[in-house]
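Researcher: Next entry in the queue.
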Amino acid sequence: MKKKIVVFNGVHGAGKSTLAAALASQDERLVFYPEVGRKVREEVTYNALESGEAFDREVMKREMARDLLLMRSAHVPLVETWHMGNIGYVYARTPHLVDEFTEKLRQQLTYFEPVCIFIHIDWDVFRQRITEKIQPHQVEELIAFYQVIRNATFKLYDELGLPYHIIENQGSMAEGMVKVKECLAEHLD
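Model: Structure for this entry, 189 residues:
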């Protein structure tokens, strides 16, 4: 039997971490696992537009290692980004790694059954929430970068036959939580 996991994807600033942490604190079935890439970013000088192959390979290596922990968890892992989100970054930064990383995800899908939830915000909200270390003149370039990631994530869902839900998170955290809880009620209850 496959291990059920909940995966939150979405662009930077969509509220993935905030919603996931709050949800896990309210639902004893869930344990939150933050984005692996964030931890790697904290360890190196990082710019979303400039990171490359070494960064993406390190994220994949750590994600694969963490998957072993997810398999052993007595709870339902609530994972921020996971492989499909990471592969979205690879499409945008290092496309020559896409096939290799997608094959690794295919292998993981023999063990995992992800409930994919894409947390969506519009680009005006994104502009308000930007915390990336970029210059002001790079905002539109960053939006184009995240459009590639978003589109690649949806393409990957479709290519791998992964059902997914899109949650609009333009408003308050409370509104987002209601929508996420409704979605999870379909899959976990």
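Model: The radius of gyration is 16 Å.
Researcher: Noted, moving on.
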